[in-house]
Amino acid sequence: RQRVFSGVQPTGALHLGNYLGAIRQWVTHQDLFENWFCVVDLHAITVPHDAQRLAEDTMNTAAMYLACGIDPRRCKIFVQSHVPAHAEMAWLLNCLTPMSWLEKMTQFKDKRAKLEDAQSIYVGLFTYPVLMAADILLYRAERVPVGEDQRQHLELARDVARSFNHLYGKRIKRQRQPPVFREPEALAWDESSGVARVMSLTDGTSKMSKSAASDMSRINLLDDADTVRSKIKRCKTDAGRELVFDDPDRPECTNLLNVYRALTGSRPKAEIEDVLRQSGGWAAFKPLLAEAIVTELAPIQRRYREVLADRGELQRILRDGAEAAAEIANETLRRARGAMGFMERV
Ligand code: TYM
Known about the structure:
The protein is mainly alpha-helical. Helices cover 54% and strands 5% of the residues. The model has no long low-confidence stretch (mean pLDDT 94).
C-alpha cells in the first residue's frame, strides 16, 4: 500500500479550508493507504508564537484529527517535535538546498510581507519548506494530500529529494540499494472529497486562513450553529443573481458553491446550478449553505469534546504514533547520514 504523509500546524483553531483542503481527504482515503498524520509543531514556531498555548494547541489539533474521523487503528498520529529526526533531517537538507529555491516560495514572501517587525522574520520562516521536505522524505511518502497553497512546497520537496539522490546517491546505487529518498507525487488532489482552495468569506480572492485578522473571514471547525449562520448571512456576495460556478469575475460565488458542493455529495456542477436557479438567488442559497456546514460540523464538534474528555487515551495514541514514526524516520536518517559521509557513532 502506498504511504501517505500529511500535517497541520497547531496554530489556533482549524477552519473549513484545512478540513476541505486536507483533512477530509485523509479521512475519505484512510482505508486505501498506510497513513501518517503529524501535528507539525516545529512549523508553528516559525512565526512569533505564544509559548503558553503551544502544547495545548498541539493536543487540540491532534484531537481534531480524531474528531474529523481519522481512525487511530488505521492511521498513525504523532507530534512532529516528538520525533527528533525531523529537526536533524531538516538541518542536513538545509545544507544542500539552494537559497535561491527558497527565495521563490510565495508563502514566504506573503508571510514576510505581513510581519511588520523585521526582527520577527526568522530564519526558520525562510527555511520552513525544507523542514516540510524533511517531514515527507523521512517517511518516503508517496502521497501528500494538502490544499493547493502547499503545492509549491511539495514541488520543492521533490526537487530536494532529487538533488540529494543525485549528489549523494552514487555509492548507494553501486551497492544496489534503493535511493535514500523517494520523490513524492506532485499533488494527490481529489475533487470528489474537498476543495483545493477555500477562499475567505469576506474576499473571494484570498484564501481562508487562520491568520486573517477578521474571524468573519473564516468558518472555524468549532464555530457553533448560530455563529456559522451569521457568518454565512453576512459573508460577501455580489450583484449577480444567477448562481454559477467558475465565473472568474465572481470569485465569492464560485467559492461558496464549491463549499456547498463538497458538503452535499459532490454532484455535477450543472445539476447544482439547475436546482439553485429554480430556488432563486443568494437569499435562498445562503441558508442552504449554512445548514450544510452546520450539519457537517455538528458530529465533529461532538466527537471533539469526547476525545478531549479522555486525554489519557489521546496521549496513548500520540505516544504510540511517535514510537512507530521514529522507527521509520531514524532508519531514513541513518541512511542519509551514511550517504553524506558522516562518521558512524562510536
Ligand atoms: P497549514 O497548517 O497551513 O494547513 C493545513 C492544511 O490545510 C490546507 N489549507 C487549505 N486548503 C484549502 N483552502 C484553504 N483556504 C486552506 N488553508 C489551509 C493546507 O494546504 C494544508 O494541507 N506546511 C503545511 C504543514 C506541513 C505539511 C508537512 C503538510 C508541514 N509539513 C508535510 C504535508 C506534509 C502547512 O502549513 O499547512
